[in-house]
Amino acid sequence: xxxxxxxxxxxxxxxxxxxxxxxxxxxxxxxxxxxxxxxxxxxxxxxxxxxxxxxxxxxxxxxxxxxxxxxxxxxxxxxxxxxxxxxxxxxxxxxxxxxxxxxxxxxxxxxxxxxxxxxxxxxxxxxxxxxxxxxxxxxxxxxxxxxxxxxxxxxxxxxxxxxxxxxxxxxxxxxxxxxxxxxxxxxxxxxxxxxxxxxxxxxxxxxxxxxxxxxxxxxxxxxxxxxxxxxxxxx
Length: 235
What we know:
Layout: H1 25-39, H2 46-52, H3 57-60, H4 67-79, H5 92-108, H6 113-119, H7 126-141, H8 146-171, H9 177-193, H10 214-234
């Protein structure tokens, strides 16, 4: 028989679990982003987030309607890190290019968010809307009318999401390097089999498409696009 503890020794109480954090939309989104950072976009689900928060999936639906809304809220959280500069008509072309670069970096900071952005043509969350308004303000500061600014903003948004989506695929391993190496080998063999007389330029273009030229291609596209807008304004 074990002896009882002496009276001057505190009897240990059963270990109590730390109190759960109160559920909120912010907590759900924060948890989803943590899962995304650790396991990738495909691991994020309402069930997985609920499991991480030690609750049932049904509890989440009071704050987030469905997985699609959760995706949009994660995208919105990523875009919250993008600055919203005051338009400066003297340097509006540089501001437009800087804004695109900021948006790409924000999406690439979270594995899979660029995919969400690409699959959500018109996200209507606070930071998404704010970024849309900022871009229109920058474009109009350069002298574009509203229709021109809207069309230009739409084209820039499409390019930004496409670039971030492609770049994220390589950065976060959405593409299997082994498979891509085989595909690249097959592509190289196929291209070499084409008649040089029929495709004299295309057969030399491959050297400009690789990871090393990614940033240069982005800068070229931005420079060409913004130069075109500036020329349009001067007319």
